[in-house]
Amino acid sequence: MSEVTPRDREWMAEALTLARRGQFGTAPNPRVGCVLVRDGHVLSSGWHAVVGGPHAEAAALQALPPDGDARGATAYVTLEPCSHHGRTPPCSEALIASGIMRCVVGMVDPNPKVAGSGIDRMRAAGIDVSILEAFPEGRWLNRRFLSAMERGRPWIVLKCAVSADGFIDPPRRKGEMGSLAITSPALRRLTHQWRAEEGAILVGAGTVGNDDPTLNVREAEGPNPLRIVLDPEGRTTADRQVYADGHSTLVVGGPQGLPESVVHLDAEGQFVLPFLMEDLMAREVRSVLVEGGADTLGRFLDAGLWDEIRLCHSTEQTEGGLPAPAWPTEEDAILRGEHPFGTDRVEYWVHPAAAAWIGTHFPPTLSVPLP
Ligand SMILES: NC(=O)c1ccc[n+]([C@@H]2O[C@H](COP(=O)([O-])OP(=O)(O)OC[C@H]3O[C@@H](n4cnc5c(N)ncnc54)[C@H](OP(=O)(O)O)[C@@H]3O)[C@@H](O)[C@H]2O)c1
User: Fold this and answer.
1) Is the pLDDT confidence value at 227 over 70?
2) Which of 131, 239, 291, 334 is the most exposed place for a label (fewest CB within 10 A)?
3) Higher pLDDT, 113 or 204
4) What per-residue confidence (pLDDT) applies to 175?
5) In whole angstroms, how far apart are CA 163 and each of 193, 311, 315, 318?
6) Between the CA of residue 193 and those of 19, 186, 218, 221, what are the distances in Å?
7) Cα of 295 to ligand 1 centre, how many Å?
8) Closest ligand 1 atom, CA of 298?
9) Which ligand 1 atom sits nearest the alpha carbon of residue 203?
10) Domain over 6-141 is classified CATH 3.40.140.10
11) Rounded to an integer, what distance in angstroms lies between the CA atom of residue 57 and that of residue 105?
């Protein structure tokens, strides 16, 4: 097994840049990039763009010039090549067949279906396989996938817009319905990008009742996350958009008479959050964006069931309304970054346990770069 050199690390950084391109399409799969190099030159490269589509290694092999081949090359792959027949054929076999001489792997795939067997297979075929000792950037990029594989639960992001005087909903006139914006439209585009990046978006019964939100991605490019409503007491009504618009929603509890597009879960006699996490694992939902309201966010905070918090602070006061839950402070959480955004400001927090597990090499904005 060859030592990993600084040059190897540079090629791996290129592969990671490619892996990032799968940001909105690969879930529940990880994001993976691959670069094929021979004699110090890139032969071809690829990335996993969309679930069901070619894996990064297959994409790189497909991108070889028509008269070219990969014989004697080194493959830089951010995650161990797979060894099982899933939605696509095994990549370790494709690399063996391509005649590469060496493979540098960013990290071993913790998926029990792989877990070192792709590496073993390549080594058995005579390929010199090196594994990076540490790859914190690669771990952060795949934190959602790794959370499911290593911790047995989705990665959880709490998001909330807060007024300058600490409220998350302005005062409402009696019976006033609909979403009352706290932050600017420019920031809303960013938050829709956040939605597109996560496997699911979750709100409580109060938000569905008051705001009647659609919870979809309208102001950015990307897939709609699965919508989840927590309503164990069945307080919401079937006419709400999350139930009636024909798109899929998962509701814990909820009202009677829901259409087929809505999956109903009965949590009777169970603790709702652990019950939900188990169900989401079975559905291969790798991450959840919790958008509120105050009670729901408070329950996730109280349970310590969160990994990131993205707080969108407005400079405007609402002079009353619904108070924000008690956020963690710098004594019990990591404030990673603070960014002005038009007239608003975004704060990015990370749970210390999440940081200890995934590694502390995370970018200041945690997610997509600010536009
Ligand atoms: N500024 C923002 O970013 C933002 C975002 C979203 C919403 N909001 C605002 O927040 C307001 C609603 O907040 P809210 O605190 O009244 O209500 P909420 O958090 O939306 O919903 C609370 C209800 O959801 C159910 N629920 C949530 N988590 C649960 C759990 N773990 N176990 C069991 N039940 C659970 C409970 O229903 P039961 O009591 O029936 O059991 C609970 O009372 C809305 O007016 C909305 O405008 C603001």
Assistant:
1) yes
2) 239
3) 204
4) 79
5) 21, 10, 7, 6
6) 18, 12, 9, 7
7) 5
8) 19
9) 20
10) yes
11) 11
| Domain range list for the chain | 6-141, 143-358
HSE on the CB side for 9, CA within 13 Å? 10
For range 301-312, the mean pLDDT: 96
Is the full-model pTM beyond 0.85?
yes
Q: Whose CA is nearest to atom 8 of ligand 1?
A: 293
For residue 195, which amino acid is it? R
Fold held by 143-358: Dihydrofolate Reductase, subunit A (3.40.430)
Tokens 């989840």 belong to residue = 228
Contact 191, 367 (CB under 8 A): no
Pocket of ligand 1, beta carbon within 6 A: 160-161, 168-169, 182, 203-207, 210-211, 230-233, 235, 272-273, 291-296, 299, 322
Instruction: Give the separation between CA 250 and CA 160, rounded to whole angstroms.
Output: 21
Q: Does residue 370 register a pLDDT over 60?
A: no
What per-residue confidence (pLDDT) applies to 361? 73
| Residue 368 confidence class, pLDDT cut points 50, 70, 90 | low
CB 359 within 8 A of CB 107: no
**Separation CA 55–CA 31 (nearest Å):** 9
CA distance 174 to 151: 44
Please provide the average confidence, as pLDDT, over all residues in the chain: 92
The answer to whether the beta carbons of residues 347 and 330 sit under 8 Å apart is no
3-class state of residue 338 by DSSP: strand
Flag whether pLDDT at 367 surpasses 90.
no
Quick one: tokens of 190? 């960013």
Amino acid occupying residue 305: L
State the closest ligand 1 atom to the C-alpha of 180, by its place in the atom list counted from 1: 47
CA of 219 to the centre of ligand 1 (A): 24
* pLDDT for 364: 66
Structure tokens at 312: 């969108």
Phi/psi of residue 127, each to 5°?
Answer: -85, 135
Provide the pLDDT confidence category of residue 257 given band limits of 50, 70 and 90: very high
